[in-house]
C-alpha cells in the first residue's frame, strides 16, 4: 500500500527474519513484568502488535538475582520462569507481531543490598554501595546472560536485547567512571569492553545464530569519565564481529544531570549520535530518544541517520501508532507529550506505569473499549467544559454512539492545556488537543464553542445526565494589595500581559515553575540551544560527550516563592523535577521558601524570609497560588433533580493533574454506558 512514510514502512531483511517496518517499540519497564501472572503484560503487548509495530522489546528482565532492579523483580533463570512468559509471546504472535526480551543486569543501580558492580562505588542515585565482583562472579554472570537468552528462546521470544547502556552493569564495566579494576576486566579499553563482548558471545552461543540479538550500546554517556567517541566506535565494531544483529542507541546514564527524554528535549535531538556511527559498522542501527511522530521518524530514516527508529513512550500513548501512520491517519495519533508523569515517574517510585494521555495503557484488561451501540443514540448527555476531562469523556461516549452535547465557554477546545502549550518545553500539549478534536470529529458529538452554558439551559435540555468538567478558577490568596496594577495572575501572563524585568512569582507548584520558565527562556529555543544550554558537545571532544553548559536566559530576574519551608519544587515529577530546578537555577531564578507575605504596593512585595522583613522591589507579582474547583452549576442542577457527575478539576482541584482528569473522563463514560 502507498504511504506518506515510505522509509518507515520499508521492511528490514535480517537474513533469518524480516521485520515488516522500521519501528521498534523500545524497552520500557511497566511494572507488569513483575507480576506472577503475566496476562496483563500479554494484553498490553498484544494491543501494540495488533497496532502494527515491527518489533517490540520487553522491560528489563534480570539474568540472575543480583541483577534485579528491585527485590523480587522479574528474572529469567529457570524453565518454569520461561514457561510463564509463553502467554506473552503467544499473544504477540497471534497478532502477527515480534517480540524480544531485554536482559538487564542493574549492577550498582539495583535497589537492594545484594547489588554488585565492577568496582565498589556507590551510584549518586542509589542508597546502596555495591559489592565488587570477583573474577569468578564475572564469569558466572556472563553465563547467566547466555542462559537467560536461551530461556527467552524457549519462552517463544524472537530475540533478546542486551542492555548495555544507561549506566547499568555492562555500561559500568565499559566506562572508566565506574570501572577501576586492575585485572583483565579493567584498565585498557580492551579490558573494559571484555565483559560486554563476552556477554554477547555467551548469548549467541547459548541461544543460537538464527536468533535476534540487539545490543543497546551507550553511544553518549553524558557523565564525566564516560566513553570517548573512539571507544564507542571500537566497541561497536567488536559487537558487530561477535554477532550482534542490531545496535540500539543508548543516550545518557540515569545519573546524568542532563534531561534526555523529558519534554524540554527537542524532537529527535539525539539522532545525530546514531548517525555518527553509520559509516563505522554495517549492521543496522536504531536511533532513539524523543522521536514521537511519524514525520520525525521518516525524516531520520530518509536522511540516512539510522536504519530503524525506537519509540517507547509514544507506543504507550497510542498502541495503534504504526497502523495510523501507515494509513496516513496522522491526526488521529495520540501523541506522547513527554511528560513522564504516568510512566517513568511511577516506575521510579515502584508503581505500575500507565500514560497521562491514554489511561488504558497497561490497563488494557481493566478499561475495555466501548462498543458502538445504535440504541445509545437515544441517550442525550451534556458535557460541560472542553478541557482534558470533558474531552476524554465526550470522546468515549461519542465512540459508543451516545448523543453528546459538549459545551465550551471559550473559542477553542483544550481548557488549561491551551495555557500549558505556551510554556517553552510544553508545546507538545497542543498535540493532545488536536488528538481529541480529531477523535470527536469522527463521532456524533455536537460541539458548541463560545457557549458558557447556564443551569437553566441545561435543565430544559432534556438530558439524561450532565457531566460537569468545568475545571478550576485560580486561587486568590488573601495578600493585601492584590488589586495593585503590578499584580498579575498566571492566566494574564500566559495570555500575553506585559511583564517587567524583575518579577516575583507567588507559589512554586507546577504552574509557578512553568511561569518562571516562560519568563526566563528565550523564545524560539532551537535544538542547538538545547545542546548548548545543557553542555552537550556534538563534536564529542571529551569523555561522555560533555561540554560546558551555557545557560541562555531572557535576563529577567525572577524570584520563585513559597510559604512552606524546605526544598522548592519538592512535589514536581520524580524524573523531571530536578531538571526544572536546575534549568531555572542556571537562569539565575532565586528560590525562596519559608516566606511570609505581608502586602504589595508601589515599592513591591513586602515579605519576611528567614526571619528578616524585606521588600522585594519588583515590577510585577505573578500569582500562581493554586486553584479551586469551579462547579457553580452543580447545586442548581441537582436541585432540579438532574443527574450530575463532576470530573477533573471541577471535582477536585487539590493535586489536580491532567492524568486524573483524562482518566476520570474515561471511567465516567464506562460507568454511564453501563447504566441502562
Ligand atoms: P480545564 O482544563 O480547566 O477545563 C475546563 C473547561 O471548562 C475550560 O475550557 C472552561 O472554559 C470550560 N468551562 C467552564 N465553565 C463552563 C461553562 N459554564 N460552560 C461551558 N464551558 C465551561 N497538568 C499536568 O498534569 N501536567 C502538566 O505539566 C501541567 N501543566 C500545566 C501548565 C499550566 C500553565 C496550566 C495552567 C495547567 C497545567 N496542568 C498540568 C494542569 C492541567 O492543565 C489540568 O489538570 C487540566 O487541564 C484539568 O482538566 P479539566 O478538564 O478538569 O479542566
Ligand atoms: P500547586 O501545585 O498546588 O501549587 C500551588 C502553590 O501555591 C504552592 O507552591 C503553594 O505553596 C502556593 N499557595 C497555595 N495557597 C496559597 C495561598 N493562599 N497564598 C499563597 N500561596 C499559596 O498548584 P499549581 O501550581 O496551580 O498547579 C495546578 C496543578 O497543575 C497542580 O496540581 C499540578 O499537578 C498541575 N501541574 C503540573 C505540572 C507538572 O509539571 N507536572 C505543571 C503545572 C501544573 P505554599 O502554600 O507553600 O506557599
Ligand atoms: Fe508520554 Fe506522558 Fe504518556 Fe509517559 S505519561 S507515555 S511521557 S504522554
Bound molecules: flavin-adenine dinucleotide, NADP nicotinamide-adenine-dinucleotide phosphate, iron/sulfur cluster
Number of domains: 3
Output the number of helix runs. 22
CATH top level label of the largest domain:
Alpha Beta
Biggest sheet features: 8 strands, parallel, barrel
Summarize the structure.
With 676 residues, this protein is of the alpha/beta class. It has three domains: 22-257, TIM Barrel; 374-474 and 628-674, Rossmann fold (3-Layer(aba) Sandwich); 487-625, FAD/NAD(P)-binding domain.
Walk me through the structure:
By secondary structure, the protein is an alpha/beta fold. It folds into 3 domains: 22-257, Alpha-Beta Barrel (TIM Barrel); 374-474 and 628-674, Rossmann fold, CATH 3.40.50; 487-625, FAD/NAD(P)-binding domain (3-Layer(bba) Sandwich). Helix content is 31%, strand content 17%. It is built from 22 helices and 27 strands. Helix 13 packs parallel to helix 15. The two termini are 43 Å apart. The relative contact order is 0.10. Residues 339, 341, 384-390, 407-410, 415-417, 419-420, 423, 452-453, 469-472, 494, 510-511, 514, 630, 648-650, 656-659, 661 line the site of flavin-adenine dinucleotide (FAD).
Based on the model shown, name its key terms.
TIM Barrel; binds NADP nicotinamide-adenine-dinucleotide phosphate; 676 residues; FAD/NAD(P)-binding domain; five-stranded parallel beta sheet; alpha/beta; Rossmann fold; binds flavin-adenine dinucleotide
Amino acid at each position: 500500500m502507498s504511504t506518506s512514510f515510505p522509509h518507515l514502512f520499508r521492511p528490514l531483511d535480517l537474513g533469518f527474519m524480516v521485520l515488516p517496518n522500521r519501528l521498534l517499540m523500545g524497552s520500557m519497564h511497566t511494572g507488569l513484568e513483575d507480576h506472577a501472572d503475566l496476562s496483563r503484560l500479554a494484553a498490553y503487548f498484544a494491543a501494540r502488535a495488533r497496532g502494527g509495530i515491527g518489533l517490540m522489546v520487553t522491560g528489563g528482565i534480570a539474568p540472575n538475582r543480583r541483577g534485579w532492579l528491585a527485590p523480587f523483580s522479574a528474572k529469567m533463570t529457570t524453565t518454569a520462569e520461561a514457561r510463564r512468559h509463553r502467554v506473552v509471546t503467544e499473544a504477540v504472535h497471534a497478532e502477527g507481531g515480534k517480540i524480544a526480551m531485554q536482559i538487564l543486569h542493574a549492577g550498582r543501580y539495583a535497589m537492594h543490598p545484594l547489588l554488585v558492580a565492577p568496582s565498589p562505588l556507590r551510584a549518586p542515585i542509589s542508597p546502596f554501595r555495591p559489592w565488587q565482583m570477583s573474577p569468578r562472579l564475572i564469569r558466572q554472570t556472563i553465563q547467566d546472560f547466555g542462559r537467560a537468552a536461551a530461556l527467552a528462546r524457549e519462552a517463544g521470544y524472537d530475540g533478546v536485547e542486551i542492555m548495555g547502556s544507561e549506566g547499568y552493569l555492562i555500561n559500568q564495566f565499559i566506562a572508566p567512571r565506574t570501572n577501576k579494576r586492575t585485572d583483565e576486566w579493567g584498565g585498557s579499553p580492551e579490558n573494559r569492553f571484555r565483559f560486554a563482548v563476552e556477554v554477547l558471545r555467551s548469548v549467541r552461543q547459548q541461544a543460537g545464530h538464527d536468533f535476534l540479538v540487539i545490543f543497546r550500546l551507550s553511544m553518549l554517556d553524558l557523565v564525566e569519565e564516560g566513553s570517548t567517541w573512539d571507544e564507542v566506535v571500537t566497541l561497536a565494531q567488536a559487537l558487530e564481529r561477535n554477532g550482534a544483529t542490531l545496535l540500539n542507541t543508548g543516550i545518557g546514564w540515569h545519573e546524568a544531570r542532563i534531561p534526555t527524554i523529558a519534554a524540554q528535549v527537542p524532537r529527535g535531538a539525539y539522532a545525530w549520535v546514531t548517525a555518527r556511527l553509520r559509516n563505522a559498522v554495517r549492521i543496522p542501527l536504531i536511533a532513539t530518544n524523543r522521536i514521537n511522530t511519524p514525520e520525525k521518524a521518516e525524516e531520520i530514516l530518509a536522511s540516512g541517520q539510522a536504519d530503524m527508529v525506537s519509540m517507547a513512550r509514544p507506543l504507550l500513548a497510542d498502541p495503534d501508532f504504526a497502523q495510523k501512520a501507515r494509513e496516513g491517519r496522522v491526526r488521529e495519533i495520540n501523541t506522547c507529550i513527554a511528560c513522564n508523569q504516568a510512566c517513568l515517574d511511577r516506575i521510579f517510585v515502584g508503581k505500575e506505569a500507565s500514560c497521562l494521555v491514554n489511561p488504558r495503557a497497561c490497563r488494557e484488561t481493566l478499561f475495555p473499549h466501548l462498543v458502538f451501540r445504535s440504541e445509545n443514540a437515544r441517550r442525550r448527555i451534556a458535557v460541560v467544559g472542553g478541557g482534558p476531562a470533558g474531552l476524554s469523556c465526550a470522546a468515549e461516549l461519542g465512540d459508543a454512539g451516545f448523543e453528546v452535547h459538549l459545551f465550551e465557554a471559550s473559542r477553542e477546545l483544550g481548557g488549561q492545556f491551551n495555557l500549558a502549550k505556551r510554556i517553552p518545553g510544553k508545546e507538545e500539549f497542543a498535540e493532545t488537543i488536536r488528538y481529541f478534536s480529531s477523535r470527536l470529529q469522527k463521532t456524533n458529538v455536537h460541539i458548541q464553542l463560545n457557549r458558557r452554558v447556564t443551569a437553566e439551559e441545561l435543565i430544559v435540555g432534556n438530558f439524561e445526565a450532565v457531566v460537569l468538567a468545568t475545571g478550576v478558577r485560580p486561587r486568590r490568596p488573601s495578600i493585601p494589595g492584590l488589586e495593585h496594577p503590578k499584580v498579575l495572575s498566571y492566566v494574564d501572563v500566559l495570555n500575553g500581559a506585559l511583564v517587567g524585568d524583575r518579577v516575583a512569582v507567588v507559589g512554586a507548584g507546577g504552574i509557578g515553575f512553568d511561569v518562571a520558565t516562560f519568563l526566563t527562556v528565550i523564545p524560539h529555543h532551537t535544538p542547538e540551544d538545547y545542546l548548548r544550554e545543557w553542555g552537550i558537545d556534538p563534536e564529542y571532544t571529551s569523555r561522555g560527550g560533555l561540554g560546558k553548559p551555557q545557560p541562555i536566559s531572557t535576563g529577567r530576574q525572577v524570584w520563585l516563592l513559597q510559604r512552606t519551608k524546605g526544598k522548592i519544587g519538592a512535589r514536581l515529577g520524580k524524573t523531571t523535577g530536578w531538571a526544572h530546578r536546575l534549568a531555572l537555577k542556571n537562569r539565575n531564578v532565586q528560590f525562596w521558601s519559608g516566606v511570609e507575605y505581608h502586602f504589595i504596593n508601589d515599592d513591591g512585595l513586602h515579605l519576611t524570609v528567614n526571619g528578616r522583613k524585606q521588600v522585594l522591589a519588583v515590577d510585577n507579582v505573578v500569582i500562581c497560588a493554586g486553584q479551586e474547583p469551579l462547579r457553580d452549576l452543580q447545586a442548581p442542577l441537582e436541585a432540579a433533580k438532574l443527574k450530575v457527575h463532576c470530573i477533573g478539576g471541577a471535582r477536585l482541584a487539590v493535586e489536580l493533574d491532567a492524568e486524573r482528569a483524562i482518566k476520570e473522563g474515561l471511567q465516567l463514560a464506562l460507568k454511564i454506558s453501563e447504566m441502562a
